[in-house]
Design brief:
With about 200 residues, this protein is mainly α. The chain is built from 8 helices and 2 strands.
């Protein structure tokens, strides 16, 4: 079972990964956006880690809802509300259980991803974070590693796509040939989940 501590570690692992990859995320965003995706998420996940440390929530759902609120209030631009919604709605779907199964998490994440699609009006193939999140949520039903692989594959598959949502869509055909920054950071989020699960060993 996955308890609040597991979700807390998922968030701190994500923050560390975003720190490591911030320059690359910003570089990707400089090609088809406004060069702020790395710093946006760095600021957001630093706030998440600080808020979780200050008053660690007692349930998985509460951890993700607090994290989502922090992202919404500290990350500007498109990705703050979208990532915030992802975590808040996933957390809400987990309810008040003190621990959840991997399958329950996969289902809840599916609900969170659907909320992102509704908020941003994007669908698969629009060259957004959804291109990593949709396949990941599906594959997480099998295993954490399958979810991680599907997210990474989805992020890489955004390269030949033309952006139809967000700032990159203003570039039209010139958005082709670049990996989407949000899909790339979403793959980091799911990789951090798999890493946390692996570090937890047989308890998952
Ligand atoms: P901004 O575009 O406001 O500068 P960021 O650079 O932080 O925000 O994030 C850009 C990322 O947000 C994109 O790479 C894309 O993955 C994601 N994104 C933008 N608009 C949408 C949308 N409508 N639906 C889903 N994801 C989106
Ligand atoms: Mg940007």
């Amino acid at each position: 079972m996955l308890d609040a501590d597991f979700f807390h570690r998922w968030m701190t692992t994500t923050a560390a990964s975003v720190d490591r990859e911030a320059a690359r995320l910003t570089e990707l965003d400089s090609a088809i956006g406004d060069a702020d995706h790395g710093s946006n998420l760095q600021r957001g996940f630093a706030a998440v880690v600080a808020a979780l440390a200050e008053e660690p929530p007692q349930t998985p759902g509460a951890v993700l809802m607090l994290a989502g609120r922090q992202l919404i209030s500290t990350v500007g631009g498109a990705s703050g509300p979208l990532y915030g919604t992802l975590l808040r709605r996933t957390g809400k779907a987990l309810g008040e259980a003190p621990a959840v199964t991997a399958e329950e998490l996969a289902q809840a994440l599916g609900t969170g991803v659907a909320a992102v699609a509704q908020l941003g009006g994007a669908q698969a193939g629009d060259k957004t974070m959804l291109d990593a999140l949709l396949p990941a949520a599906k594959a997480l039903g099998s295993s954490f590693d399958a979810g991680r692989d599907a997210a990474l594959e989805g992020a890489l598959a955004t390269v030949p796509l033309q952006a139809r949502k967000g700032r990159a869509s203003y570039l039209g055909e010139r958005s082709i040939g670049h990996q989407d920054p949000g899909a790339t950071s979403s793959a980091l989020l799911i990789a951090a989940l798999a890493e946390t699960a692996a570090a937890t060993g047989g308890d998952v």
